[in-house]
Amino acid sequence: MSAPLQSSVAQVLGIGGTVVGAGFLVDHGTLATCAHVVRQAGSRPGERLTLVFPHAEDSPRLTGLVLAEAWREPDAEDIAVVRLDHPVEGLPSLPLGFSGNCRGHRVRSFGFPRQALSGGHFGTAVADDVISYHGHGPVLQLTDANDLTTGFSGGPVVDDATGLVVGMVTSIVAPDEHRRGQNIAYATAVQSLRRAWPALRADDTYPYPGLLEPFGREHADWFHGRERAVRLVLDALTEQTGRSSGVLLLGPSGSGKSSLVRAGVLPALERARVPGSDRWLPLLLRPDRDLLAELDAGPLPGTLSRGRPGAGRTRQAGGGPRIRPNPARRRPVRGTAVR
Q1: Which end of the chain offers a freer environment for a tag, N or C, measured as fewer CB atoms within 10 Å?
Q2: In terms of domains, do 134 and 205 share one?
Q3: Three-state DSSP class for 317?
Q4: For the stretch 286-318, what's the b/e string if a residue is b when 16 or more beta carbons lie within 10 angstroms of its beta carbon?
């Protein structure tokens, strides 16, 4: 029988021994948490952090080194990896899954909000889509997340269907003045944890997104076998650079067009495989009868009045898409400043 989830979750202690967030074991002697939790604890990369495992035998109090090479800033992927100075035998680590194939699944976490007992409590939510933005790692959106209150930051997000970790709680969203947008939280996707600490790649993974579900940008590390097709699209785009025309990709329904573009072509463009493409603004939509009108009403306002190039320049001047929602609407998870 597997160990309870809470046995693998640690309290991250700040100055004076106050609990500032959570962290969880990802392998023997290695713990993952949020970079903003480490900052709140008064530590930083290359320094030590104090941890307590309240549900492990004897509730061990441990210290660990915050690894500089795995650090991802709070305003980016918000990841910190801690190597324990003296790992304790018997502390279970949590197996990592994949964030891209859990949409609609119930998920749970464990954290240490102020209103809970001193040992923390569980929180539940429903996994929604993985959101990818240019220049940032993928983020798993969680809905029905009323239980995930302040104090869960750095806690694992475990898929009830598989028992695997699919993310790490990083932030929650405050409702607007009409009390809309409640019960939404965000989690750093597991694939970002693996990129920050490549040793985790050896764990079992389940990258298949599901029947008829296309691969997305977050699946790029597992998207193989279509290299020639990706190269053909990139070559065609290179030929069209500087022209007003584009490249049309045709194929029967279900043949993998969306997966090819999202998991193959777009990641290559972000790496500037076409000259200057790392500065392009990607827009994804499902056009119906009037593409320009849908661009105008959706991701590219001003298309009808200023034309597609003019609207694109305005959008890029505004900084393009953002990985986080409006800071004025965000409520910080315990231990993080409003960003």
Answers
A1: N
A2: yes
A3: helix
A4: eeeeeeeebbbeebbebbeeeebeebbeebeee
